[in-house]
Design goal:
Elements: E1 4-6, E2 9-14, E3 23-26, H1 37-46, E4 52-55, H2 71-84, E5 91-95, H3 97-108, E6 113-117, H4 123-132, H5 134-138, H6 142-151, H7 160-168, H8 174-180, H9 182-186, H10 189-206, E7 210-214, H11 220-229, E8 234-237, H12 245-248, H13 250-260
Parallel strand pairs: 3-4, 3-5, 5-6, 6-7, 7-8
Antiparallel strand pairs: 1-2, 2-4
Helix pairs in contact: 1-13, 2-3, 3-10
């Protein structure tokens, strides 16, 4: 697939403009837009049809590194790419860390929907986990710490082709992880939680459809919290793919995207 520059980010733009909302695909931390290739292939196969924009986030793949990676700034860069591509309000699809980014994007800019792939939005546990690794992530021992993080993603649960795709298109650099986790390290937890609560409130007030796809059973307490924060959000559990349910069954995932974008059933 041919990459181009849109808004300062490496991008692949595919599909037509005849109907339905466009899709914007955002990969998780240390990966790149290649993680979406199996889903793109399924959308092509089904000839499901609005435009699809897959981006390399700053510092990943073909996009240049930045001095810092605050969520608001990265969301603004994604919006610049969407605007330069001439797309109307998109369905923003974010995997892992990028699901938080997708939520922040939808709060700040026009959006037709959000698809959150395997990223709980509780800031307190996320900050506690990041801070338990802060010394290694920012200092010595990064490789060992990040290997533990990757072990929790359970890539081994995926088909061999999907595992190889991820391993060939990952960028586990210390500067990248430390940069994207800087807000988790340095921002007071009540402020982190308040910022995300404000974003969720904006998504709720705008009536933006929200789908959370989890690769494992969801903590009942978190379900209750999400029901309060986004009463109309839909949660689906797709076991068997670890942290990557979209790669365990890309055809099914493409169908969900087509439906939430208003493209109809791609089957």
């Amino acid at each position: 697939m041919e990459s181009r520059d849109l808004g300062g980010l490496a991008a692949v733009l595919e599909g037509g403009t005849a109907y339905g909302a466009p899709l914007v695909l955002l990969h998780g931390l240390t990966f790149d837009q290649a993680m979406w290739w199996p889903v793109l292939a399924e959308l092509r196969r089904a000839r499901a049809g609005g435009p699809v924009l897959a981006l390399d986030l700053p510092g990943h793949g073909g996009s240049p590194a930045w001095p810092s990676y605050g969520l608001d700034g990265v969301a603004a860069a994604v919006h610049d790419a969407v605007a330069e591509a001439g797309l109307p309000a998109p369905v923003v699809v974010g995997h892992s860390m990028a699901a938080v980014l997708a939520t922040v994007y939808a709060a700040a800019y026009p959006a037709a929907g959000v698809v959150n792939v395997d990223q709980p939005l509780w800031m307190e546990p996320a900050a506690a986990f990041a801070r338990s690794l802060e010394g290694e992530i920012r200092g010595g021992g990064f490789a060992t710490a990040w290997a533990r993080v990757e072990a929790g993603m359970h890539m081994e649960a995926l088909p061999a082709q999907a595992r190889e795709l991820l391993r060939a298109n990952r960028h586990p650099r210390q500067d990248l992880v430390a940069g994207y986790w800087r807000e988790l390290f340095d921002t007071p937890v009540p402020e982190l939680a308040g910022n995300l609560a404000a974003a969720l409130g904006a998504v709720r007030e705008k009536g933006i459809p929200y789908l959370f796809v989890s690769g494992h059973e969801v903590d009942p307490a978190y379900r209750r919290w999400l029901d309060r924060a986004l009463p109309d959000a839909r949660t689906e559990v797709w076991p068997g793919g670890g942290h990557f349910p979209q790669l365990a069954d890309p055809g099914r995932f493409a169908g969900r995207l087509a439906a939430i974008a208003g493209w109809g059933d791609p089957a």
